[in-house]
Amino acid sequence: MLFALAALLALVGAGNDPDHAARLQVVAFCDLVIALITMVAPWRPSRPNAPALIGLAGFAVLGLSTWSFGGVAAGTGPFLVMLYAWSALHFPRWILLAYAVPATLAYLLPLIITGQSPLVLSSAAILMPVTLSVSLLIEAQARHLRDDRERLARVERWRSAMMNTLAHDVRSPLSGVQIVLDELREDATGVAADMLDVALRQAARIHRLADALLDVQRIDSSGRLTLDRREYPALELVQEALGYLRPDEPIRVEIDPSARLYVDKERFEQILINFLTNALRYGRPPVEVRIARDGDVDRVEVRDHGPGVPEELRDTLFGQFAVGGDQGVGLGLWIVRQLARAHGGEALAESRDPGVAMVATFPARQPS
């Protein structure tokens, strides 16, 4: 684009300066050739510095341009700086230093050939050091940004591998534990049966945590989740989800028995259980579950009567790996928001007096 712009300006100059039109047309042709070569050349990632050769050709054309304008360097200086800035963004500093000699010659030789005064020639003593200094600053900043990006990429790869490994390593032995617990539960009675029920619920919870880790990886890698949405009785969905919690938890359910939800059942349970566990952990009883239709949206609300969301957490409440000291909300609410958005809805927190209501919205299924 830089050389295409230079070609366009050379053509404009040819129209405004008939005496030098032929020379300027040659300059425009050279700029266009360089632009085309830059676009179609098979640059190889194994030779990242090869495009620096374009800079050398550019300096030669800049010198030709100055000569074509009769020694007027008003257009050469800015393009020289732009060419150096482009180089600083893409190449190491040794190339910028190596450019110093051809760039200086490209600027000075046309001035000498056209017989410019020593005062004009001395402008190189200001332009070239300033141009080189600015380009070195740009190169340093660009290098730091590239290093930071590569470091973040390494951290992300490590995090992704760790989460995948952890999730899979948890799921495999946990399946064996659940099978054993199920076998024991069939013949258990009394207190032993109650204890095995608790163990089975907690094993199911760990299994869901492993699934949540895999969900994070799927969301990060593809940006979307595949859902199996169907229409379910809302009250039945909530009661099944409550089965994963202790039966004596202070939870009140206020749902119209005729209400229905169009959701992915497993994802909905993840959302609701996350809301409920947070409300029970950080809020105060009673915890209330409500589902209501608002236009073409179903609102699932879990409200507690605690102190509400701390001020320092409000901006990051649904963020990935959000923390806030002892009241850290962790990863769960970020997953909740991604699951709600995958349904076409949203997850948010609404203040109540007292407490807070965690809300997930789901598009209502329209009648066919």
Structure description:
With 368 residues, the chain is α+β, with helices and mostly antiparallel strands. It has three domains: 2-122; 162-222; 229-363, Heat Shock Protein 90 (2-Layer Sandwich), CATH 3.30.565. It contains eleven helices and seven strands. The strands form two sheets. Strands 2-4-5-7-6 form a five-stranded mixed beta sheet. Helix 2 (21-40) packs antiparallel against helix 3 (52-68) and helix 10 (265-282) runs antiparallel to helix 11. The longest helix is centred in the middle third of the chain and has 64 residues, at 124-187. It is elongated. It starts with a helix and ends in a 5-residue tail after the last strand. The model is unreliable at 323-329 (pLDDT under 50).
